[in-house]
Amino acid sequence: MNKTAASDEIGIFVRVVERGGFAAAAEETGLTPSGVSKAVTRLEDRLGVKLLQRTTRRLMMTAEGETLLVRGREILAAIEATEAEVMAARGKPKGTIKVNMGTAYAKHRLAPVLPKFRALYPEIDLIVSVADRRVDVIGEQVDVAIRTGGLDDSSLIARQLGQSTRVIAASPAYLARHGEPQKASDLAQHICLTIAGFARLSEWPLRVNGKVTPVAVKPAVTCDNADILAEMALAGLGIVRLASFVIEDAIRDGLLKPLLVDCHVSEPVPITALMPPGRQHLPRVRAFIDFLLEHVPEPSRAQP
After folding, report:
1. Is it the case that residue 301 has pLDDT exceeding 60?
2. pLDDT tens digit string along 64-74?
3. Least crowded by CB within 10 Å, which of 18, 55, 206, 223?
């Protein structure tokens, strides 16, 4: 069997796993479900191992299948990257990039610079999904996922785009009604607003007796959208702790006031692009990442 046919069969196997079955993979590849099943069987016969355990309800990967899935994705990405690089030599990068990011980055950082990106790269199309939750980058076939905050260990390729800080703030109207907290223990008497889905963001690092201590706040409102929390704070509902780039304009305009600046530990918040192995070599992906590094401004330190 030739190399091309081998890579085709690996590609079909990867699609079967990612789509959860032969029928779904058949729709994407243009084959029949029977043709997809036979391609996987030929691959198993050639390798001399079982890759999938087939039952009436679901497909389960064997250990060998899990190994091939990881390496197969890398092989397919490398093939696509090589083809794209050869084609890019004839002109500017082209193709589609599937990007995922949180609402705050999409609104405050990506949207303002997209017109310039499109002007520079008119043949690169973006599919932007915005979600304030963790997504399965590989399973959902995302080319670039932009994350704000610490990262879990993974096989994804990481490229740091910059960093922000976190700021504790409230509106003057809220402070006029409830007073301004002066020390960590005062937060227990205040209305706090926190990001949902990330337990660590309900613990605010503050210096207590000279020691950095994660102070657990009891949120009156939790929300999975940083911009909505910022709007709640602007409306005078409570105190928030958010990445500086979300509220730096409001602080600059006096609509929010930073709090506990003497004891709040505003640790760096990395902003990172995550990519499945191999995707970082695609010319269109490289162009997108390089553009963000050059044109997206570093968040300023939001201070009073």
Report:
1. no
2. 888 888 888 87
3. 55
Q: Are 31 and 96 in contact (CB under 8 A)?
A: no
What's the CATH fold of domain 3-88? Answer: Arc Repressor Mutant, subunit A (1.10.10)
CATH of region 166-258: 3.40.190.10
Q: Where along the chain do its domains lie?
A: 3-88, 95-162+273-295, 166-258
If one counts every other C-beta atom within 10 angstroms of the C-beta of residue 148, the result is 24
**pTM above threshold 0.70:** no
- What pLDDT score was predicted for residue 272? 93
Q: Give the strand pairing for 192-195 and 239-243.
A: parallel
- Could you confirm whether domain 95-162+273-295 is CATH 3.40.190.10? yes
pLDDT band of 88, cuts 50, 70, 90:
low
Q: Are strands 257-258 and 95-101 parallel, antiparallel or unpaired?
A: unpaired
DSSP code string of 57-72: S-EEE-HHHHHHHHHH
**What DSSP state is assigned to residue 113?**
H
Query: Could you identify the residue written with the tokens 């109207």?
Result: 173
